[in-house]
């Protein structure tokens, strides 16, 4: 359960950070 929540939060944080750094990735 905790791993799933952490993975989701990390994924959201990575996505927002990637959008700021490199929007062409997604």
TrEMBL record:
<protein>
    <submittedName>
        <fullName>Heme exporter protein CcmB</fullName>
    </submittedName>
</protein>
